[in-house]
Amino acid sequence: MKTKYWIALFLAIALLCGGLTLWLFNANQNAAAAEVWSGGKLVKTVSLQEDQTFTVTSGDKENVITVKDGAIAVTQANCPDKHCIHRGYCSGGAQIVCLPNKLVIKFVGKQPLDGVSG
Fold this sequence. Notes:
Blueprint: H1 2-27, E1 31-38, E2 41-47, E3 52-58, E4 61-68, E5 71-77, H2 83-86, E6 96-98, E7 103-110
Antiparallel strand pairs: 1-2, 1-7, 3-4, 4-5, 6-7
């Protein structure tokens, strides 16, 4: 009975490690675009290939979003904690969220790999 327990434990750990590896690999891929949501509504879809700065306003809530060099960031916000600003520039992976201002930036589409970047 102890042997079956150890085999099951080993398989569970192996599956967990494999799943985490796939998740981390996919999280590091660069996105082609980002969707900006405010108050549960899609405000704008932006290409990460075009540098730009724009402001998302909802009532008295305001976030300045900057796209630069294939990455996007919240560069100014009137929220109290400023966690969204501290996240910095991102080109993929987890969403950028400003919870007090109800702003979410979701990454969509993957950029194809080329011969230079591998």
